[in-house]
Design a protein that fits this description.
The complex is a heterodimer of chains A (153) and B (93). With 153 residues, chain A is an all-alpha fold. Chain A has one domain. Chain A is built from eight helices and no strands. The relative contact order of chain A is 0.09. Chain B is mainly alpha-helical and 93 residues long. Chain B is built from three helices and no strands. The longest helix of chain B has 29 residues. Classes of the chains: A mainly alpha (153), B mainly alpha (93). Chains A and B meet through helix 1, helix 2, helix 4 and helix 5 of A and helix 1, helix 2 and helix 3 of B.
Amino acid sequence: MTFATELPTWTALLIAALVLLGAGLAFTGSLGLLRFNRFYERVHAPTLATTLGAGCVLIASMIFFSVLQTRPVVHEILIAIFLTLTTPVTLMLLVRAALFRDRVENKPCNEVETCAVPAAKNRPRSGRLAPSQAEPMKPLTHHPDHGDKRDHR
Amino acid sequence: MTANVLLGSLTLAQILMTLAMACATFRMLHGPRAQDRVLGLDTLYVNAILLLLIFGIRSDSTVYFEAALVIAVLGFVATAALAKFLMRGEVIE
């Protein structure tokens, strides 16, 4: 750990603050993932880590290597761009899959006991699901892709 | 003095990231349904990227950056494939 003595004071303090902020935000996001009750609430929590937490840590890394090597080191921006581009895509895919699974099982949300408490809040969603419940749904004892007439690309 | 502050905050950040990874691992192992497990895996990937970056700052080497980038790419592919699997029942149709 000889590098830390070469750093100017403002750089060391700035890096310390940014790293602590990023790690704290990532921990908050993961704690939210642990503590929230429903899946659709849990999806929101880790995005705190992927946007602001990753941004703080990446900026701290950029400042650290730029000051230490006395030239601009910006290759961390690759990770920032990649995380920013891919996180919404994957989470939208995941939420659509979860919504599909919940609708197949005729459950508006994934945990019945937590959905039963705010009954008024879930009313419009179950009302929107009513037409699909009115028509007799196919018994989905197996996966829906096995026997249907959709063309498989 | 400032070196000690930087070292202490890096250590604290590493402890926080380890706790965050523990939370994500618990959700991945204990999640009520499959989508919770996939979400925990995605969070675990992102936390591993951040932990590797902090470790790279601490050990003053840019070697860990490539590992973090590979984890980012593999995490995207893994989560997209698992979401496709949850949606359709198979990954490549």
